[in-house]
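Here is an idea for our session: we take a single protein and study its fold together. To get us started, please write out a protein record for me. Start from the sequence, derive the backbone structure tokens from it, and show both lines together. Go ahead whenever you are ready, and we will take it from there:
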Amino acid sequence: MRDTRIVALGDATHGTHELFTMKQRIVPLLAANGFRTIAFEAPYAEFEVIDEYVRTGGGDVATALASNDYFFWDADEIVALIEWARAENAAGANPPISIVGVDVAHPFSAIDRLLAQLQSLDAATARDVASRYDCFLMFRDNPRLYEGRDACREDVAAVRPLLASRRSIFASDDDYERALHAARVIEQGELSFATALANRDAAMAENIEWLASRHPHLIFIGHNEHLGRTPYSLTAQATTASAGTYLAERFGADYFAIGSVIGSGTFNAYEYSGSTAFLRVHTAQSPLLNDIATLLRQAALPQMLVPLRGSPLTGEWIVRVAGTNVPSGRAPMLELHERVAEKFDALLFVETTTPTHLRHWPTLP
């Protein structure tokens, strides 16, 4: 594991307490072995605020975590992980621990943050960059209207060349590279709005690669299906190349994906009623005979980590997962047929689960 570049920690649901508390145990072990960057399936700009807090004690973590669509990170379990990272840095961790977001969501927050940075460096450059974003910013209050459009793409894409032409305003190479990356994340966000998130996994993989070019070892935290080494199909009609698919192709055996499986229990997720989603606690349906959980629970252990590289677990198994929202209240977990030993390098199994301890309880319109 010490020689692995990227360790991915996947969640079967976004709202399971035990999967998050396991990260409180696994992440410090990895950090002690050189993994100093923790990348979340989370919005870039908001997690830049969290990284500021982790590194310096500044930044408003409560506001940065408060979110309707990424409600699952605004939990006591994640705050405990953030506080651990802050304490390590305050004690002189070298190199310091970073917490970053690699998802394409919330590009308008990323624009706000980039413009604030540029305003502190050079007002003329800030004005010029702002003018490039004017078209896209018109959709801030209703980004769904941008779907199917590309009217602002040329202007948004013009920002990186503009920043390159003003290289001298940046105090360091690091500041310059981070500004270019922020502009790239905004480009990804514009495309995600235009394509209904069709570029999401590819963009997250690109952002992980960018981080890997700057940090020798990093941790990637997100949902099982985004982190697995093979494509995923949430419906019979569509197959998506996961971020993990791209990373496995790029890094080979240096990408180590740990998926998670639950036996029984409860978790937090949205459930739609008409056009409105209400967050509530759901009870996982019982695993079927060909569910991988049925096999793993035969060990009669409450929690365990099962290595899969070279495993005899060939063929397809059912893996139950749930995302931000559930398909139905009666059967809240999708039952996906997956070649588990190809998808993951290891599995974290938790027999009985409980919901995460959320810090707020939103409703998604």
The chain is about 40% helix and 25% strand. Residues 173-194 form the longest helix (22 residues).
